[in-house]
Amino acid sequence: MRVTDVIRKETKFERILTIIAFILILFFLMYVINETNAIDSNIEKNKFITVGRVYKYEEGMKGKRIYLYEYYYKGQIFDKTSTEGNIQNGRCLDRFFIVNLSSENPEYSKIFLNQEVKDTSVILKAGFSKKKL
Predict the structure, then answer these.
(1) CA–CA separation, 72 vs 8, rounded Å?
(2) What is the β-pairing status of strands 47-59 and 96-102?
(3) Which of 28, 30, 71, 102 could bond to 108 as cystine, CB 3.0-4.6 Å?
(4) What are the CA-CA distances from residue 13 to residues 20, 44, 88 (Å)?
(5) Predicted pLDDT at 117
(6) How far apart are CA 82 and CA 39, in angstroms?
(7) Nearest residue to 71 (alpha-carbon basis) of 106, 40, 29, 41
């Protein structure tokens, strides 16, 4: 067997591996997009509007902001994260915002950091205690 034959076999093998990797990445991306659309659709179909409180703010990789928030549904507290929003330097900490969630799957939620809630009666009705105000 000559050296050129070995190189050709390795090249073909590398091409096949590259194609397989590309296909797997494509399927993964399609799954993620489909799952995200399914969650958004579920929230829209079974929409329940409540209030959530941002309790932590972090700077992620490449300056991406991560907001940790909590909300109540039927007496149970849920903790979620969001990377959507553009409130800088954590100015949203310990503030309350509108949250849309799915009444069918209450762990599916979306917080709207541009819709602050300041009415304490609405906040208390959403399940928060006076200590968190």
Answers:
(1) 62
(2) antiparallel
(3) 102
(4) 11, 47, 49
(5) 97
(6) 14
(7) 106
What is the spatial distance between Cα 95 and Cα 69, in angstroms, rounded to a whole number?
10
pLDDT value of position 100: 97
The whole-angstrom separation of Cα 72 and Cα 77 is 4
User: Please, which residues have CB within 8 angstroms of residue 49's CB and are 6 or more apart in sequence?
Assistant: 98, 99, 100
Closest CA relative to residue 110, chosen from 31, 33, 29, 48: 48
Q: What is the DSSP letter of 42?
A: H
E strands, 33-102, are 47-59, 65-73, 76-82, 96-102
**Distance separating alpha carbons of residues 20 and 37, to the nearest angstrom:** 26
- Taking a C-beta distance cutoff of 8 angstroms, is the pair 85, 116 a contact? no
What pLDDT band is residue 88 in, cutting at 50, 70 and 90? low
